[in-house]
Specification:
By secondary structure, the chain is mainly α. The protein has seven helices and no strands. Helices cover 68% and strands 0% of the residues.
């Protein structure tokens, strides 16, 4: 059953976006949401971090490059799903940020964040999961995604990366 079949799901999505978007009235929260949203645009934060780590961590360079490729692949997969689903963005709240497109499902910020959390976590970066969660939350506070968009994006990204972690680890030298 999709969320249109359940009588309360769309309403709940709208109420959660409204409640979280209200936190953006605080200028500090709005600034953080904008910064995280900008950093996560097209997976830039994660791709830059992966490439920087590949340059700095010579013994695991191939693993970092493969993990970065998995993150990019997850992001591209999210973009493809978004073009198929074509769910409109929330229109009942004023967005804090501009968006690259008008479609909402899945959140590609969340897709790349979920993938990066798995990839970077596999490579021992403890801050990956909290930073990924912050990027995901920023999309709700910014009022540009529904919670189901973010949850689906994060799950898609994490699954995509998880499916490739064996290949990624094959690039690690002991």
């Amino acid at each position: 059953m999709d969320d249109l079949d359940h009588p309360h799901a769309p309403d709940l999505d709208h109420r959660i976006v409204s409640a979280l978007r209200a936190y953006g009235a605080d200028p500090r929260v709005a600034a953080a949401a904008r910064a995280l949203s900008r950093a996560g645009e097209h997976g830039a934060l994660w791709l830059a971090a992966g490439l920087a780590a590949a340059a700095a961590d010579r013994p695991r360079r191939t693993a970092w490059l493969r993990g970065t490729a998995l993150t990019a692949a997850a992001h591209l997969t999210g973009m493809g799903v978004k073009r198929l689903v074509r769910r409109p963005r929330p229109a009942h709240v004023a967005p804090l940020v501009r968006t690259a497109g008008r479609h909402s499902f899945p959140s590609c910020h969340a897709t790349s964040a979920g993938a990066a959390a798995v990839v970077f976590g596999t490579l021992g970066v403890r801050a990956a999961w909290p930073l990924a969660a912050a990027v995901c939350a920023s999309r709700l506070v910014a009022g540009v995604h529904y919670p189901s968009d973010v949850a689906a994006g994060a799950a898609l990204g994490a699954l995509t990366a998880r499916l490739g972690t064996g290949w990624m680890r094959g690039g690690t030298r002991a």
